[in-house]
Amino acid sequence: MLWSNAQVFGDKLESQALQKGCEEDIEKHCRRCIGYPTMRTMNKLKKYGMYTLFFMFIFVVVFQFSEDVRQPAYPVFKRSETNQTNRMIIVVTPTYKRMTRIADMLRMANTLSHVKDLHWIVIEDGNKTIPAVQDILDRTGLPYTYQAHKTALGYPRRGWYQRTMALKLIRSNTSQILGQDHQEGVVYFGDDDNSYDIRLFTDYIRNVKTLGIWAVGLVGGTVVEAPKVVDGKVTAFNVKWNPKRRFAVDMAGFAVNLNVVLNSDAVFGTSCKRGGGAPETCLLEDMGLEREDIEPFGYEKTKDREIFVWHTKTSTPNIVQSKKNQTKPVPPPDTFGYFVEV
Question: What pTM does this model have?
Answer without folding.
Answer: 0.77
